[in-house]
Amino acid sequence: MKIISWNVNGIRAVAKKDFFKDFQILAPDILCLQETKAQDDQVTETLEPIKGYHIYSNSAEKKGYSGTAIISKTKALSVSKGIDIAEHDTEGRILCLEYDSFYLVNVYVPNSKNDLSRLDDRQNFDLAFFNYLKDLEKQKPVIVCGDFNVAHKAIDLARPKANYNKSAGFMQEEIDGMDRFTQGGLVDTFRYFFPNETDKYSWWSYRAGARAKNVGWRIDYFLVSQSFIPSVNKAYILNDILGSDHCPVAIDLM
């Protein structure tokens, strides 16, 4: 089984590019999307050309903002949206599908913003989301993927010294939140297979030709329950797929 995660920075925008051609090339069993920037009916309408898949989405109350969706060959046993905490559930950031042997959680973690005005809210989200995942784990293993809006270690961005404790996405508070996940029983699959791999990123600024120069950040992840690691065969970053400021990341299951 191939599971792919991709922040598309607007599903309707990316659909006008090479999204459907890329979808055929990628041939995912499951594709998790973040930042759809569309309501549920708009997501369904936009993805109508894709046949043979089930489409699930969780949209923000605010139109044209945030949102998550999952395209899956296999019908989910159950579907849940959000984490039952009102302050975190208005922006369509969490979508969970239950399958036979795991829960798949698609997340779009809040950005702290350039002025860090949302850093406190983001910290609250990180803790609430971690607790939600640990509750799910009591029932079966968890796969969580998406845009976490943080580079976890210095190796995960091109210019760590210039950004540490200065830029959203590499503040110590955000790093601490990621530490909570990885020290709390969830494994960063890419780092599990490639602990010392450098220059592998999933997001690049649109400014100053950052992508062409590979001045990027790895902020998109697949985390899995420790008990589930033997079922993960491969983790990789698909940085040749264009259409968004993010590229897809993926895992293959045994």
CATH superfamily: Endonuclease/exonuclease/phosphatase
Query: Which spans have pLDDT < 50 for at least 5 consecutive residues?
Result: none
Looking at the structure, what is the overall shape? globular
Number of strands: 14
Average of per-residue pLDDT values: 98
Walk me through this protein's architecture.
The protein is of the alpha+beta class. The protein has one domain (2-253): Endonuclease/exonuclease/phosphatase (Deoxyribonuclease I, Chain A). The protein is 25% helix and 26% strand. The protein has 8 helices and 14 strands. It has helices spanning 11-15, 19-26, 40-46, 119-137, 160-163, 172-183, 189-193, 210-213, and strands spanning 2-7, 30-34, 54-58, 68-72, 78-81, 94-98, 103-108, 142-147, 186-188, 203-204, 216-217, 220-225, 232-237, 249-253. The chain has a 6-stranded mixed β-sheet. The longest helix is centred in the middle third of the chain and has 19 residues, at 119-137. The protein is globular and about 45 Å long. The termini are close together. The model has no long low-confidence stretch (mean pLDDT 98).
List keywords for this structure.
254 residues; alpha+beta; Deoxyribonuclease I, Chain A; 8 helices
